[in-house]
Fold this sequence. Notes:
With 445 residues, this protein is an alpha/beta fold.
Amino acid sequence: MIKVNMGGCSSFVKDAEYKKYLSKALEAYDVLESETGAGNDFLGWKHLPTATPASLIDECEAIRDEWKAKGVNLVVVIGIGGSYLGAKCAIEALSHSFAKQLSSAKDAMEIVFAGQNLSEEYICELMDLVKERNAAAVVISKSGTTTEPAVAFRIIRNYLEEKYGKGEAASRIVAVTDARRGALKSLSTQEGYRTFVIEDNVGGRFSVLTPVGLLPIALAGFDVRSMMKGAAEMEEECAKRSENNPAVVYAAMRNLLYDAGKKIEILVSYNPKLQYLGEWWKQLYGETEGKDGKGIFPASVNFTTDLHSMGQYIQDGERILMETVVSVNDSNRSMEIVNDPQNLDGLNFLSGKPVEHCNAMAELGTKLAHIDGGVPQMSVTIERINEYNLGGLFYFFEKACGISAYILGVNPFNQPGVEAYKKNMFALLGKPGYEAQAEELKKRL
Ligand code: PA5
């Protein structure tokens, strides 16, 4: 279970002020729970952990077993934004850091990602790998019209059809998309791809607990049932109308700090496996809150690595920062620091101590240093990195995000700002219908 602790903010915040923001957070909670706020047609994510049928997970696992049985050893998962980051986050967090190099993992079904950028070099190099392997693909796009995944899918589909023939290629492609609309839906119907549905009432960045995240995570061999169990327990915990509801507490404090001038929130982790939790969280909060000229800017760092790059700024730069540390109590592996009879590096005071003890002391020392330096610290603690706790983290951050955006006074569930670059890109690429905009843009270049 997740524990939220605001002790690292106490020297920055007066009790009365915090009480005021807790009341605002409870009002926002009411708006979210009564489904009366802006964007209330996008609240399907709230009950996914408890409402998702076990048969959906069975289906994901059946595809995994089928592909394994035909020797598939590489799955290309195609998607961008909310159709990419949740799966990437979970797979990075749960995988062995050196899975690709380990000989014991050589028979596993490896997951790689495509369609999350438009780099020609990336897709060429990805195809170098695909051509060496026995490959399958999962294409994920709610709208079915997003350019990045559509371009990657064209290339991969074409390759699979040339290599295996249309029928076999179709059995190696699964689409996750809207139930009715979009080019991907029509293509899947025409070609006979298996499809999973992203419901209309779940937006991309809130979709990790739908097949958007569950299918790739299950294909990677992880226990999505346990992930949904952890999420379900947080669904219950975060449904309580209480000043102790962790989502209410976190939403209240980050808004208080924002109004007090802390415009940037850094999500901090001390395990490199959680780097993509930061990426997923940045999209969730950035796309939800960054609108109407408002919103906390979400950033992320991975310590202790980034203490040697961003540490100086965080300690001593402009005082507009707050931190949220995702703390992990127990390491999944253990390794003691060995004794050195010569003690040339002077580290024998650490002999016999677990490496994680150093990491924990680095975390505590950094917390105190940053508080002394004017950076308030919120913490979100899990027992260890596993499917269950990741599920809990996903749900907790989603619920807190909805509450937080309502405190801020924005529609949490739209993303009008994402369209601006798309329109310019289409105009510059010569998409029919964008001729006038292309003329205007060309004058400015
Ligand atoms: O959160 C969102 O809505 C976006 O990040 C989308 O997930 C992203 O733009 C991809 O959209 P789609 O799934 O329609 O291809």
